[in-house]
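Annotated sample (chain length 165).
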Amino acid sequence: MMNIVALLVAALIPMVIGFVWYNPKVFGTAWMKVAEMTEEKMQGANMLAIFGISYVLSFLAAAALNAIVIHQSHIYSILLDEPGFGDASSEIGLFIADFMEKYGDNYRTFKHGAFHGIIAGITLALPVLGVNALFERKGFKYIAINAGFWIVCFALMGGIICAWK
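Output written by the structure step:
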């Protein structure tokens, strides 16, 4: 049920949105201040490694979102231990094929995926970033800028993953 091409494309979203979001004319200047980031720190970075690792991590986030935004993927985990699972001609294989033929496109829209992406951003990204920020003694603005970024990214990533059949 995973569309690898959709996941690869969705994993690009944080880089594209980050280019805009963290631009000095948007939230970049405010983020640098609350993150205690300086131009000197930014100059000494290995950008190839940062973007490469960021892309891999974004791909992992996209893979996790796949299970959240595509409801049909749950049928496989529910039926995984049933006799004949994996055999298209078995009773369970025929049931899954029939189910997917009837219901496989239900809720497979950009809007539905974006909705679940927003929910995932609020219930997963925000708490993780918020807890870390509290212990790092960062303020509300730091949390809002970074969590807002991930909520927007998860919305767009979820929309792409869900709609791309």
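Annotation: The two ends are 9 Å apart (CA to CA).
Annotation: The chain has two domains: 4-70+109-163, 79-107.
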